[in-house]
């Protein structure tokens, strides 16, 4: 699949997730088989660009290309300015967020709230594409099937995106009001695929290699994007890519592999965030990695109570030392 001048090696991508897809996580997912990863959404308001939080989100040092940055906002000129700013910071692809269902985003008429104003959608897409075109940077769009089930407009938005020069469309198969409940609407994705010629990336409820194959076959999408199912399970990308290529499943990870990936992720996370923020912000990842393992109920409360990166890391190393490295994980960790 191509996005502008970029060709992805296979059709398996990481979904942008606020508070999750930071640089350490994106680098790990790419190392474990993701062909493409989009950053957490970055604010389009220039007053926020120098904040610690936004500065971290715009840090792509050491991340393999193509670096894709998602921008969020509701003002066409501000979004265009943000796109150019991020290109100068290293973005190779700009993604526009029109899919986030969070109240704090929708309350400022951003994210999926934009789906209620198709004229504004057109102005935003046109303005951002026009700003990025001279820089030879493609613009993509991530959206949902509509605001609610009575106002689904995914096909119209998709055609609008194509007409405005959007290079690829990612569609989460739910409306904004569905949040993350119910089942993803693969019928709607199929309709959208038939209505446009640009690449379509299917998103929503893809949690296994078999589900990825089914969604690609049913919708006709060019690629799939995995979000929640990769939390604590970043090797799902190589599992899906292998299955799509060969029709067979890779063996489950061993405790030795889990140790390597988890502790490596921690080291990168600590280096990125520093001591104070790192020890706290990595707890959710540890919880996702270990949640479904047999002794998680006793291990996790102890790990979560530790307040230094050294203690956190040492406790996990000792825990792994007590387990045979070649033993297969009893339950593949999956947080949904």
**Count of helix runs:** 14
Q: What is the number of strand segments?
A: 10
Strand composition percent: 5-15%
What fraction, in percent, of the residue positions are helical? 40-55%
Reading the helices and strands in chain order gives EEEHEHEHEHHEHEHEHEHHHHHH
Main pleated sheet = 8 strands, parallel, barrel
Low-confidence blocks of residues:
none
Distance between the first and last residues' Cα: 28 Å
Mean pLDDT: 92
| Gyration radius from CA atoms, angstroms | 20 Å
Shape: globular
Class from helix and strand fractions: alpha/beta
Sheet with most strands: strand arrangement? 3-4-5-6-7-8-9-10
Structure notes:
Strands 3-4-5-6-7-8-9-10 form an eight-stranded parallel barrel, surrounded by seven helices. It has helices at residues 23-31, 52-57, 76-88, 103-106, 118-132, 154-164, 186-195, 209-219, 236-246, 255-273, 275-281, 283-290, 296-304, 309-321, and strands at residues 2-3, 6-7, 12-14, 36-43, 68-72, 93-98, 139-144, 168-172, 200-203, 223-226. Helices cover 43% and strands 13% of the residues.
List the helices and strands and how they pair.
Elements: E1 2-3, E2 6-7, E3 12-14, H1 23-31, E4 36-43, H2 52-57, E5 68-72, H3 76-88, E6 93-98, H4 103-106, H5 118-132, E7 139-144, H6 154-164, E8 168-172, H7 186-195, E9 200-203, H8 209-219, E10 223-226, H9 236-246, H10 255-273, H11 275-281, H12 283-290, H13 296-304, H14 309-321
Parallel strand pairs: 3-4, 3-10, 4-5, 5-6, 6-7, 7-8, 8-9, 9-10
Antiparallel strand pairs: 1-2
Helix pairs in contact: 1-10, 3-5, 5-6, 6-7, 8-9, 10-11, 10-14, 12-13
